[in-house]
Write a structure and sequence with these properties.
homodimer, mainly alpha, flat, DNA-binding
Chain lengths: 123, 123
DNA sequence: CTTGAACCTGACACCGGTGTCAACTTCTAC
DNA sequence: GTAGAAGTTGACACCGGTGTCAGGTTCAAG
């Protein structure tokens, strides 16, 4: 599919998609004229990329991880090296801590919302 | 306490603490000579600020929220306006989605780690 | 006093994903 | 073949919290 469709279907800007490709996160064929032609599976992949970005990983690390994931095809095409595994374990810890932060922050918000709720109308 | 101590006790850089103050997130007395003198409770407050930052809120929103929280003193000093509550509810939704992303990303990492674990040593 | 540590303000830069403008090319459908 | 939509590359800028350097002042201890 063309970049416009991919952008529409994933909700990600074309600029970002080109950037992903440039970073090696995404691969595309090209038409004779040079237009990108993405495979169907790119849709899922873009969503994964976004999730990993949201989890605070940078494009370098994502590029290392992606080939080690099992595609919808089957098993992973590349095996993670021990060094990479160590880094991923560290990332995992970071993600855990981040989830903790988020949960606490959500509680804070709830508290503020709740405190306002009971009294906004009343005196 | 002085900024150096606050930095040491919270693990946050002095630069950031000054920035927080500048953004109205933190208040300090000043010595006759102009040095900052933070109250004891600043420690907890800085930690809260960091959590909210980690949750993706910017300093403007944090500045709005902080006075609506109950301090360790007692009740909140300011009540959230309905408009602010609406914004906070939106933030809350964003946080929920982010937690979802994080959990999925963590699963991805686990999957990669696991896939590598069983075979790193073996053929 | 004097001296060294600690603090002050201000400024510059970074990161890194994303928006956007520009100038040009390709595709599609008539 | 031709017009208009859609795509291409390249460059510039932003955000916003944080690191850091510079030049000067204050604090605390001797």
């Amino acid at each position: 599919m063309r970049i416009g469709e991919l952008a529409a279907r994933t909700g990600v800007g074309q600029r970002s998609l080109r950037y992903y490709e440039q970073q090696g996160l995404l691969v595309s064929d090209r038409t004779p004229g040079g237009h990108r032609d993405f495979p169907e599976r790119a849709v899922d992949r873009v969503i994964r990329i976004q999730e990993l970005y949201a989890a605070g990983l940078n494009s370098t690390k994502i590029a290392q991880i992606l080939p080690c994931m099992r595609d919808e095809d089957g098993g992973p095409s590349v095996r993670a090296t021990p060094a990479l595994v160590a880094e991923l374990a560290a990332e995992r810890g970071r993600i855990d801590r981040m989830i903790g932060d988020l949960v606490r922050s959500r509680e804070v918000l709830d508290e503020v919302i709740e405190a306002a709720a009971g009294r906004t109308t009343a005196a």
